[in-house]
Fold these 4 entries.
Entry 1:
Amino acid sequence: MLLDIGEVAQRSGLAASALRFYERKGLISATGRNGIRRTYEPETLSRLALIACARSAGFTLTEIGRLLHAKPSDDALRERMAEKAGELDDRIAQLTRMRDSLRHAASCTHDPLIACPEFKQVVQGAE
């Protein structure tokens, strides 16, 4: 069952204009029209979820486009994907340290908080 642009926009949380922009960039494609409204395959929602995840991880739309059209023989892209995975590992470690420091800070009784040795240790590890 095809989804019209309004339903895809509502389900994905994106504006219809964003969907048209992604279409112009080759990230998604409409299957046709229902009257004047574009229609999409339901799998478009999965593709949009991947695009949103990649964007939140710091991928550019160009990088996402390359990823969506990648072939097994694209060695340069594979190398870039490995680099990006390393960058994400670094970011995850940083965010994990920040999360841990916030959890500690929520129950710490040191006054001031920044004087807490455990808090200092976690924060210094995040730099």
Entry 2:
Amino acid sequence: MKGEHLGELEELVLLTVGSLMHEAYAVLILEEIKSNTRRTMDVTAIHSVLRRLEKKGFVSSEMGGASKERGGRRKRFFTLTKAGRSVLDQSMELRYSLYQKLPKLTFTGLG
């Protein structure tokens, strides 16, 4: 079905949102991805992906309360939806199925 395909970054963001549970907001998602993948990116890219994922119905969001440390600004928190979990399950099943088809390699120590 069109719209259910995930790009690599979308999949990483979606997995991260799910793993952070109800604490997922753009800056923390960015930090988690950077620490786990060593990828260099900025928060603008994360915001863009989160908007796409929300439009596809894979995440939902709500505004948190204002805080003094953020100068009274509020954070938008993201949560994995049932549709988001389903598309991740399908993606992981496909990856695992393809991985299982890889031939076993024997290494001779050359190269």
Entry 3:
Amino acid sequence: MSRLPYDNFNAHEFILRDWLALDRTVLANERTFLAYGRTSLGLFLAGVTLIKVFKSDFAIGTGWVFVVTAVGVFIYGFRRFRKMQSHYRGLAALEEKILPEELEREFAAEAALEKERADAPSP
């Protein structure tokens, strides 16, 4: 599998904002796959319509080009989706392990700060 631009980042250094951005990226990946599917379905239906409705050789040839292109677009979109999904799965496993520890540290630091404010004498 080829390397992705953000493979250089250490997931152990992520903060909550980074994990939330990762979740948004996963949803964007799914939305992009659906767009590929919608495009391929449109091309396929246009191709079948050209083949079935029009009788000219040009229309039938163009229809077959659309059908073949639709299959290609769907395969390309599916491969990209799977590639990105496998990358995100690895990070999701780290998220389940790292994020609770990180949140616990943040909540402990916030609780200590609030206790310090409560214990401080008011002027």
Entry 4:
Amino acid sequence: MIAAALIAVLVGMALLLIRAFIGPTLYDRVLAVNSFGTKTVLALGLLGFVMKRPEFLDIALTYALINFISTIAILKFFRYRSFQVPLARRMGGNSNG
């Protein structure tokens, strides 16, 4: 049963790679890469369970955090074309109490 789940995850990863290469827009590609990272975390968790190696879960969690932060950074870069723009912009001089 776990082998079937791992095969299903690998098939999903293959489909996401196809979407990443032929995605019509940049955001489709970024979403496919982010989903691929999520499937990788799932595959690492399943592999750790099958091999009875609980330290794989630590690796999977670390990879999940890196995947999340890199997706936010990539989207920020493509929106502002720089990493120097702050996340929260100030409303210059317009204070309404």
